[in-house]
Amino acid sequence: MATEGAEGHSDPGWFVPPDAFDQMSWVILILLALAIYGLVSLYAAFDRWAEHQSHGTPLAKTIPTMLTIALLYEIFPLAHFNILLPVAAILIALMADWSRFHLHFPKDGAAHEAKPHEEPKADV
Length: 124
Hints:
The protein is mostly helical.
């Protein structure tokens, strides 16, 4: 920083007065929005790929869930989250896979249709 005479220091190069336009902040905000959009797009592509790779396996929902959790731990510092959060997500995916393979529905995929309750006939 350079000094202006004996009165004190000059403003730093990044300082913008309140009534001026701050071009750098808008550029950074746009870059941040684009980075978040790119990250979400990569996550969606990764999730589709993982779901396609695990199609037809007994762990079709669990594998993409575990890969997504691993991806999140690689990208974001998730140390401040409780370990029960990813464990709960994995258990939910495991139960979804278990129910898919252990609940036997008819071949057409429809659930059992309920028959309407028949009223007893009156003796006339």
